[in-house]
Amino acid sequence: MADKNFEPRHFETLDRDLDRISKLEAANAFVARPMAAPALAAAFILLAGLFAAFLVDGSNGALVTVLAAAIGAYMAVNIGANDVANNMGPAVGANVLTMGGAIGIAIVFESAGALIAGGDVVSTVAKGIVSPESTASADVFVQAMMAALFSAALWVNIATWVGAPVSTTHSVVGGVMGAGIAAAGFGAVNWSTMSAIAASWVISPVLGGVIAAGFLWFIKERIIYQPDKIAAARTWVPVLVGIMAGAFSAYLALKGLKKIIKIDFGTALGAGLLIGIAVWLLLIPVIRNQSKGLENRNRSLKKLFSIPLIFSAAFLSFAHGANDVANAVGPLAAIVSANSSGDFTSAINIPFWVMMIGAFGISFGLFLFGPKLIRMVGNEITRLNPMRAFCVALSAAITVIIASWLGLPVSSTHIAVGGIFGVGFFREWYAERRLVRARQMVPDRPVHTPSERRQRKLVRRAHMMTIAAAWIITVPAAAILSGVVFFSIRLVAS
C-alpha cells in the first residue's frame, strides 16, 4: 500500500530543492573559477620561495633571498601573462594555431630559450640604469633591487588586468630607476641610457609597423592580386621564407645565443644570409609540391604561409625566453649575489636555479593568464590572416637586427604590436586607394558617407589609445611604484 505522505507535490518540492542545490553548486563553481588561476599562481610563488629556502639555507640574508625569489617568481608569472602574447597572438589570430597549441609551443620554446641560451652576464643594476656605487651599502642596494623587482611585477600585473601589452624590460628599467633615485638621488641615474630607451618607445613600434606594412604590400602586389596566384606564390613564397629564416638566424645569434657563443653583428648577419639562401633553395621544390592542386584563390595562399608562421612563433618564443628572462630575474640575481658575497658593484652571472624560477614562472603565467592578452593581440586590434601575421613576425626579427646595428634598446612587445598596427593601417590605406581607383574607372560609383567610411576602419582605435597610454607611462609608473615600495621597505627595516 502506497504511503500517502509521498504525494506528487512532495516530489515537486524535492525537485525544486535539488534544483536550487544544483544552481548553488553551479554558481559556486562560477565564482570559484576566476580564483583558480590566482590561487595556482600563488602556490607557484610560494613553492619558488621554498625552493630558494632549500638552496640558501643558513647563508647570509637567507630570508631576504627567499622573499626575493618569491617576488622574482611573481615577476616571471606576469611576463608569461603579458609579454609572451606578442609572440603567439598573430599565429592564434590568423587561426594557424589553436590557443592550446600556441601555449604548448610557447611553454617549450620559452623554457628552452631561458635555460639553454638565457642568463648571459647581467649587470647588477639592469644594464647600467643606476650606478651601484651610488648606494650607501649592500643592504640599501638589496632593498632597492627588491623594490624594483616588486614594482615592475606589480605594474605588469596591472597592465595585464586592463588588457594592455607592455614591455616587461621597460618595467624593470623603470623600477630600477625609481629605486635608484629613492636610494641615491637623481644623480645616480644614467640619463643618456634613459633617453635612448625613451626614444625606442617611438622608434621601435614605428619601425616594426613600417617593415610589416612593406612586406604586406609586397605580398599583395606580387602574389595576392596576380592573375595566377599559385604561380606567383611558387616564385615568391620560398624567397619570403628564406628572408624569414635568415632574419631569425641572425636574430637568434644576436639576442638568443650569447651564453653559448659570442657572435659579432657582421658574423651574425653573414650567417643569416647564408642560411636564408639555403632555405630559399630548399623550399623551391617543397612549395612547388605543396601548391599542386590548389585553387587560384586567397584561401589556398593561406596554407602556404601557415607552417612558416608556426616556425616563426617558435623562434620568437625561444629568443624571447633567452633574452627577456634575464632582464626579469636580473634584480633577483643581483640580490642573491649581494647577499652571498657582499659584492654589489661588479657584474654577476645569474645562477641556474634563478633561471629555473624565471623559465618555469613564464610558462606558468602563460598557461594561467596568457589567453587574455593572446586574444587581444591576435584578434582585437585588427583582423589577421597567415600572410599578415607572417609579415608581423618577420618585421619583429628584422627590426631587432636593425636596432642592434643602430645600438638602440628596443622592446619586442613594442615591435610586435607596432607591426600589427602597421598591417592594419596599411590595409585601410590600401583599401582606400583601390576604392579611389575603382571610382576613377567608374565615375558613377556611389560615394561613401563619413559614417560609412568610419565603419570601414580596420584598426580598433580604442585599443591603440589604451596601448599607447600604457607604453608612455610604463617607466614613470614603475619608477613611482618602486620609490614608494623602497621607502616602505626602509621604514619596515628601520
TrEMBL record:
<feature type="transmembrane region" description="Helical">
    <location>
        <begin position="30"/>
        <end position="56"/>
    </location>
</feature>
<dbReference type="GO" id="GO:0005315">
    <property type="term" value="F:phosphate transmembrane transporter activity"/>
</dbReference>
<feature type="transmembrane region" description="Helical">
    <location>
        <begin position="350"/>
        <end position="369"/>
    </location>
</feature>
<dbReference type="InterPro" id="IPR001204">
    <property type="entry name" value="Phos_transporter"/>
</dbReference>
<comment type="similarity">
    <text>Belongs to the inorganic phosphate transporter (PiT) (TC 2.A.20) family.</text>
</comment>
<feature type="transmembrane region" description="Helical">
    <location>
        <begin position="172"/>
        <end position="191"/>
    </location>
</feature>
<feature type="transmembrane region" description="Helical">
    <location>
        <begin position="464"/>
        <end position="489"/>
    </location>
</feature>
<dbReference type="GO" id="GO:0016020">
    <property type="term" value="C:membrane"/>
</dbReference>
<dbReference type="Pfam" id="PF01384">
    <property type="entry name" value="PHO4"/>
</dbReference>
<feature type="transmembrane region" description="Helical">
    <location>
        <begin position="93"/>
        <end position="117"/>
    </location>
</feature>
<keyword id="KW-0472">Membrane</keyword>
<feature type="transmembrane region" description="Helical">
    <location>
        <begin position="389"/>
        <end position="408"/>
    </location>
</feature>
<dbReference type="GO" id="GO:0035435">
    <property type="term" value="P:phosphate ion transmembrane transport"/>
</dbReference>
<feature type="transmembrane region" description="Helical">
    <location>
        <begin position="260"/>
        <end position="283"/>
    </location>
</feature>
<keyword id="KW-0812">Transmembrane</keyword>
<keyword id="KW-0592">Phosphate transport</keyword>
<protein>
    <recommendedName>
        <fullName>Phosphate transporter</fullName>
    </recommendedName>
</protein>
<feature type="transmembrane region" description="Helical">
    <location>
        <begin position="140"/>
        <end position="160"/>
    </location>
</feature>
<feature type="transmembrane region" description="Helical">
    <location>
        <begin position="304"/>
        <end position="322"/>
    </location>
</feature>
<keyword id="KW-1133">Transmembrane helix</keyword>
<feature type="transmembrane region" description="Helical">
    <location>
        <begin position="62"/>
        <end position="81"/>
    </location>
</feature>
<keyword id="KW-0813">Transport</keyword>
<feature type="transmembrane region" description="Helical">
    <location>
        <begin position="414"/>
        <end position="431"/>
    </location>
</feature>
<feature type="transmembrane region" description="Helical">
    <location>
        <begin position="197"/>
        <end position="219"/>
    </location>
</feature>
<feature type="transmembrane region" description="Helical">
    <location>
        <begin position="231"/>
        <end position="254"/>
    </location>
</feature>
